[in-house]
């Protein structure tokens, strides 16, 4: 009987692990879109950091991301169990904040004087040259990245929680923990690889092989363009993710988005493409409008209070 109980226990554990693995795969597929935005946003967060400090900064943000998830996973489970009505409003607030940060970046040149921009650039250049404490610059980068990661991680965890909401509690915990680990390792592993492309290029250029040198020169040419591209994509992702959170959880906007996608799908030849891109563009526009409105309100309030608009920490 003891042996039978042990085998039954092992069978139950195997079944649970199979279920967890399966649901983790499903959750990973559903959160893949957010993961792509997460990668774009976080890779562009470390631009402007001295090359010898890039990996330590990425590692610091990765640790911050793990702390985020260590907070978010139990918080999501508790809210889901005792106050499920809070999940959507909290997500909406996070989405609105992402929209604000994106809009603030776009409007920066209108909200901040040339003197402020010049002073910021001089501070950054002096810090990178070793004339000032580099820790302050790194902290700004890390704080901005961790803050953005917190919002994106919350969305990933909520999506994953919705996928496993019908499973037993311990299996929900297992899936959320696995998703958190996989997403963190995956995102920041890729970010680390992206920010070190130029170093890989320099390494290859020193090789005697003509092929290696050619690849090295290609990587060196690619690195700054990739970083600039990621900076643009990262800002766009703020609107897409933030606007998507708002539009998907605002019934009127959600129905309008679905109706627009259906109508665009009827267009000859390119209907399939328009049907896929329509909701994404709609989400980005919603994010842009929401972000612009929040920036306007914050600017007016700060002017009334005699304060300057705080720059987004990116």
Textual characterization of the structure:
- With 314 residues, the protein is an all-alpha fold.
- It has twelve helices and no strands.
- It has helices spanning 2-30, 32-43, 54-82, 87-106, 108-111, 114-128, 134-163, 169-195, 197-205, 210-249, 251-265, 271-304.
- The protein starts with a helix and ends in a 10-residue tail after the last helix.
- The model is unreliable at 1-21 (pLDDT under 50).
Question: How are the SSEs ordered, and which strands pair?
Answer:
Layout: H1 2-30, H2 32-43, H3 54-82, H4 87-106, H5 108-111, H6 114-128, H7 134-163, H8 169-195, H9 197-205, H10 210-249, H11 251-265, H12 271-304
Task: Summarize this structure briefly.
The chain has 314 residues and is mostly helical. The protein has 12 helices and no strands.
Keyword list:
314 residues; mainly alpha; 12 helices; disordered N terminus
């Amino acid at each position: 009987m003891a042996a039978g109980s042990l085998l039954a226990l092992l069978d139950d554990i195997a079944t649970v692990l199979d279920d967890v693995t399966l649901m983790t795969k499903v959750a990973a597929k559903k959160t893949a879109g957010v993961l792509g935005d997460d990668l774009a946003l976080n890779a562009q967060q470390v631009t402007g950091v001295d090359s010898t400090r890039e990996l330590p900064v990425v590692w610091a943000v990765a640790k911050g991301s793990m702390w985020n998830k260590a907070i978010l996973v139990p918080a999501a489970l508790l809210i889901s169990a005792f106050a499920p009505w809070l999940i959507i409003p909290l997500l909406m607030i996070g989405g609105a904040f992402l929209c604000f940060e994106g809009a603030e970046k776009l409007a920066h040149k209108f909200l901040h004087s040339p003197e402020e921009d010049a002073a910021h650039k001089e501070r950054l250049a002096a810090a990178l040259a070793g004339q000032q404490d580099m820790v302050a610059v790194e902290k700004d980068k890390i704080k901005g990245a961790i803050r953005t990661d917190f919002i994106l991680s919350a969305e990933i965890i909520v999506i994953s929680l919705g996928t496993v909401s019908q499973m037993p509690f311990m299996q929900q915990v297992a899936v959320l923990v696995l998703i958190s680990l996989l997403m963190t390792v995956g995102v920041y592993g890729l970010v680390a690889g992206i920010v070190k492309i130029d170093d890989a290029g320099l390494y290859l250029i020193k090789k005697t092989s003509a092929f290696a040198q050619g690849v090295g020169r290609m990587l060196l040419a690619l690195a700054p363009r990739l970083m600039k591209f990621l900076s643009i994509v990262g800002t766009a992702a703020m609107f897409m993710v933030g606007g998507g959170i708002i539009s998907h959880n605002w019934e009127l906007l959600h129905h309008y988005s679905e109706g627009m996608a259906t109508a665009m799908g009827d267009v000859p030849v390119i209907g399939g493409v328009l049907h896929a891109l329509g909701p994404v563009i709609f989400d980005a526009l919603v994010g842009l409008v929401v972000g612009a409105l929040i920036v306007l309100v914050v600017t007016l309030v700060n002017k009334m209070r005699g304060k300057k608009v705080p720059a987004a920490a990116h």
